[in-house]
Design brief:
Belongs to the TRAFAC class myosin-kinesin ATPase superfamily. Kinesin family. KIN-14 subfamily. One of its GO terms (biological process) is mitotic spindle assembly. Its main location: cytoplasm. With 915 residues, the chain is α+β, with helices and mostly antiparallel strands. Among the domains are: 287 residues, no CATH class; 326 residues, Kinesin motor domain (Kinesin, 3-Layer(aba) Sandwich), CATH 3.40.850.10. It has 21 helices and 19 strands. Strands 5, 9, 10, 11, 12, 15, 16, 17, 18 and 19 form a ten-stranded mixed β-sheet that branches. The longest helix is centred in the middle third of the chain and has 217 residues. The structure holds adenosine-5'-triphosphate (ATP). Adenosine-5'-triphosphate binds next to α14 and α17.
Length: 915
């Protein structure tokens, strides 16, 4: 029973290790038991497994230094105290092992655990012997490690009373826990470390010890001031003062019965020996009185003490090792749990990743499928597009081919047309050239003939000119004498003036010389003044005489013109044109061509006499001048230039062309070298030269047309031709004619007349329905009003030059016109007959007699240019063609009538300016 109690007590002092923990650390136990891996190796492995414990190297020496402490403390503890101390120490050790992390490896080895920090508690045995105060364990870093409060694996054994055993050499002997104090982790089963006891003496001692009836009791133990008792109701320890150990009550469990097989094996032979100690039931007889050793209580006690001390130290050592292993196991388990949890986490992560991978794969597949579909769709679309483009290109190509073919055909057609046109033009040109060549040939022949005639005429002219020259010489002599007289007078006046000037100078000198004599001076001054006044008067008289000479010249000129007749008639025969065959020409002769050139013989039509003989009458006409077909416009203008000069001198001059259509009226009057432009040029030049004599001229032109007895403005808007109405108004007082709404052009330069003529021709062509038709069927009148002023003499002149291109004079019966043309012809004939009537009336010379100007628009327009107040020149134009012979004869007869008319003296419209 005592053995059982002792065993129980001893067992209870050992570390209570949970049963589950034992089972879990089988491998560790096995390793430890078999010694395959030394604790240090395991620790190292653990340290290597756990990278979170890097302080192994630094803490190990500390642990080792701890192991260097004296294993046997100087204090003695009994069983109960030892149990508490073991527990406390193991907790401290475990704490140290936990808190030092890497230092754990040092704590699990033999002797690697630091010694208990508190003094070993007193046992019941030691209680009987004072062992002195326990040495307080110095405070280490283990006590303040923060993991104490972290509730780690080791922390779960708070309050567990464990003392370590040197179990590595003790055979495994599972010893169940006996009743124990309540523990927060529940009852645990302690594992006795394997014992490998080789020391038989110690074993024997152990057996003897087991046989001791040790009485457990509540003892007091001394703990380190830094130690904290942990349990369900932890009691905080108040830090004790150094040297005054804190006393903690320790409850010692009931003594367990030792059932260790080894112990029981080794104890049995000892039982045969005599009891070494006296017990209650010992008999005095059992005592060996011979030796007396049974009574040597002190030695026995010392032996036991020593043995117990060794035993306890061994047990503590073993317990520490066991505890270290447990902690290792716990750490492994923790690590395993952590690894498992991380593995679970990794597995979950792996699963999640796999799921994600699967989903990504499916997405990838879907995307690939979609890509394939899209690619296929795009290829299809591209194919469609390509096909459409091909079709469009084909259609465009076909269209362009068609267009180009059409264009080619068009161009070919145009080329053919152009070729035809060019061929036509070339053929026309060729024919024209051939015609021109023929014409030139005939023209050259005619020219030769004409030049011969001209030569003869020139000879005649020379002789007549010699006569004229003779007469002119007489006139010139007279004029020269007059001029000489004038010059003499002028010279005299000039010399007088010079003399006077010298006299003035002499008089001035004399005045200066005779300053003293006033009377003489005043007389001399009077004389000088008189001489000067005489000289000035003489000069003025000379100038006046010169002006009178100019006036006289004009008068003489006018008298010459009057002598030539106020109405003169010139006859002009146009040449035959290239298109007109020479055989169709009327035989005409100019008998006085070389002399006066006033006659023309025109062979009349064939006439049958009563006897049946055919004869042609030779008609001789005499005019003021006859111009043959070779006469040029310049020569014609020479003859009329004196009349144009009269217009500048203030006379109304009227020059008109009369004749049938195509007789050359327009050529003579309005062509670019005709009478109108030549007259304008001459007037311009003369006006310029007269500026020296104080004359300033302004020239204003009108161009009108009389068509169907209506007046049209040829310089106005062509659209208004035949529409706009123009009235003719006469100022009877001033003898001036005004046309309403007429365009008047100021002739600032002679070149302007050309544009005026072109403008008029363009307007007439716009109104014409057929070529050349308008000019043939209407009268055109170019009116040039000349206003001259002499700022010296104060003279003023207003003359008007009328250049008239009459309509064709062919008779109605011959023209065969009807309708509109008939009306035109009637109007033309009426106006021409009215012109004849006016001229005839003027020729009668009755003062105050009626002149039928109003019978036609033409005569009414020319009222102040026909008659005594004007100078009139009529060109009778004759066509050389046989077909026009009848009309030519009629025209010549009409012209002869006019030529035989004597119109009264023309009056110059000149007035002296008032004031
Ligand atoms: N002296 C000439 N020298 C050369 N050609 C002339 C001459 N006179 C007239 N002609 C030509 O004769 C043709 C007819 O002349 P023009 O048109 O002047 O006749 P017209 O009498 O004015 O006719 P219409 O009454 O129809 O106006 C024109 O081709 C013109 O060039």
């Amino acid at each position: 029973m005592e053995d059982e109690n002792l065993t129980q007590t001893r067992v209870s002092t050992r570390t209570r290790i949970p049963q589950a923990g034992l089972r879990e650390m089988t491998s560790a136990t096995t390793n430890s038991r078999s010694g395959i891996l030394p604790p240090g190796t395991i620790a190292n492995k653990a340290a290597s497994v756990s990278p979170t414990r890097p302080k192994t190297a630094t803490n190990a020496p500390e642990a080792r230094s701890g192991s260097a402490r004296p294993a046997a403390g100087t204090t003695k503890t009994h069983n109960k105290g030892n149990s508490f101390a073991s527990s406390t120490m193991s907790r401290s050790a475990s704490t140290a092992s936990r808190t030092t992390n890497g230092a754990f490896s040092a704590t699990v080895g033999y002797g690697a655990r630091p010694p208990p920090a508190m003094s070993r508690p007193h046992s019941s045995l030691s209680a009987r012997k004072h062992t002195g105060p326990s040495i307080p364990r110095p405070a280490t870093s283990l006590d303040t490690h923060p993991e104490d409060a972290a509730g780690s694996v080791l922390g779960k054994r708070k309050g567990t009373h464990i003392f370590s055993l040197s179990s590595s050499r003790i055979p495994s002997c599972p010893i169940p826990y006996g009743p124990s104090e309540p523990h927060q982790d529940g009852p645990r089963k302690a594992v006795v470390p394997p014992a490998n006891i080789s020391d038989l003496d110690e074993t024997a001692l152990c057996a003897e010890l087991f046989n001791m009836d040790l009485q457990t009791s509540v003892t007091e133990t001394t703990v380190s001031p830094s130690c904290v008792l942990k349990g369900p109701n932890p009691t905080p320890l108040v830090p004790a003062k150094p040297g005054s150990p804190h006393k903690v009550p320790v409850v010692t469990p009931a003594r367990p019965s030792c059932k260790h097989p080894s112990v029981s094996l080794k104890r049995s032979p000892r039982k045969a020996r005599a009891p070494l100690f006296l017990r209650k039931d010992s008999s005095i007889r059992d005592i060996d009185h011979t030796t007396g050793s049974e009574w040597d209580q002190d030695s026995k006690e010392r032996t036991m003490e020593e043995f117990f001390t060794r035993m306890m130290s061994r047990m503590n050592q073993t317990g520490q090792e066991s505890f270290g292993l447990k902690e290792t196991v716990e750490l492994y388990k923790t690590r395993i749990n952590e690894l498992e949890s991380s593995r679970d986490g990794l597995t979950e992560t792996n699963l999640t990743l796999r799921v994600e991978l699967e989903s990504l794969k499916s997405q990838l597949n879907t995307a690939e499928n979609a890509l394939k579909d899209a690619k296929r769709d795009q290829e299809i679309a591209l194919d469609d597009l390509d096909r459409r483009q091909r079709v469009e290109m084909e259609s465009i190509r076909q269209d362009s081919t068609k267009d180009s073919e059409a264009l080619n055909a068009q161009h070919q057609e145009q080329i053919r047309e152009l070729k035809r046109q060019f061929e036509r033009e070339i053929s026309d040109e060729k024919a024209a050239r051939v015609r021109e060549l023929g014409q030139l040939t005939s023209q050259s022949a005619m020219d030769t003939q004409k030049s011969e005639i001209e030569l003869e005429r020139k000879n005649r002219e020379i002789s007549s000119l010699q006569n004229d020259l003779q007469a002119a010489r007489v006139d010139l002599d007279r004029e020269c004498k007059t001029v000489q007289d004038l010059r003499h007078n002028l010279d005299t006046a000039s010399s007088n003036s010079v003399t006077l000037e010298s006299s003035i100078r002499a008089l001035k000198a004399r005045i200066e010389f005779l300053e003293g004599g006033r009377e003489e001076q005043s007389e001399a001054f009077e004389r000088c003044n008189q001489q000067m006044m005489d000289a000035l008067a003489e000069t003025e008289a000379t100038k006046e005489k010169l002006r009178r000479e100019e006036t006289l010249r004009r008068k003489l000129h006018n008298q010459v013109q009057e002598l030539k007749g106020n109405i003169r008639v010139f006859c002009r025969v146009r040449p035959s044109l290239n298109s007109e065959p020479a055989s169709d020409l009327t035989p005409m002769q100019y008998p006085d061509h070389s002399e006066d050139a006033k006659e023309i013989n025109v062979m009349g039509p064939e006439e049958k006499s009563s006897l049946g003989t055919v004869s042609r009458k030779n008609n001789t006409f005499t005019f003021d001048r006859v111009f043959g077909p070779s006469t040029q416009n310049a020569e014609v203008f020479d003859e009329i230039s004196q009349l144009v000069q009269s217009a500048l001198d203030g006379y109304n001059v009227c020059i008109f062309c009369y004749g049938q259509t195509g007789s050359g009226k327009t050529y003579t009057m309005s062509s670019l070298d005709g009478m109108i432009p030549r007259a304008v040029h001459q007037i311009w030049e003369t006006a310029q030269s007269l500026e020296e004599k104080g004359w300033r001229y302004t020239m204003a032109g009108n161009f009108v047309e009389v068509y169907n007895e209506n007046l049209n403005d040829l310089l106005g808007n062509p659209d208004e031709l035949d529409k706009k109405k123009h009235d003719i108004r006469h100022d009877m007082q001033r003898g001036k004619t005004v046309i309403t709404d007429i365009t008047t052009v100021q002739l600032d330069s002679p070149e302007m007349v050309e544009s005026i003529l072109k403008h008029a021709a363009a307007n007439r062509s716009v109104a014409a329905t057929k070529a050349n038709e308008r000019s043939s069927r209407s009268h055109s009148v170019f009116i040039l009003k000349l206003l001259g002023e002499n700022h010296i003499t104060g003279e003023r002149s207003e003359g008007t030059l009328n250049l008239v291109d009459l309509a064709g004079s062919e008779r109605l019966s011959h023209s065969g016109a009807t309708g509109e043309r008939l009306k035109e012809t009637q109007n033309i004939n009426r106006s021409l007959s009215s012109l004849g009537d006016v001229i005839a009336a003027l020729g009668q010379g009755k003062e105050g007699g009626h002149i039928p100007y109003r019978n036609s628009k033409l005569t009414y327009l020319l009222q102040f240019s026909l008659g005594g107040n004007s100078k009139t020149l009529m060109f009778v134009m004759v066509s050389p063609l046989q077909v026009h012979l009848s009309e030519s004869l009629t025209s010549l007869k009409f012209a002869t009538k006019v030529h035989n008319t004597h119109i009264g003296t023309a009056k110059r419209q000149a007035r002296v300016r008032d004031g």
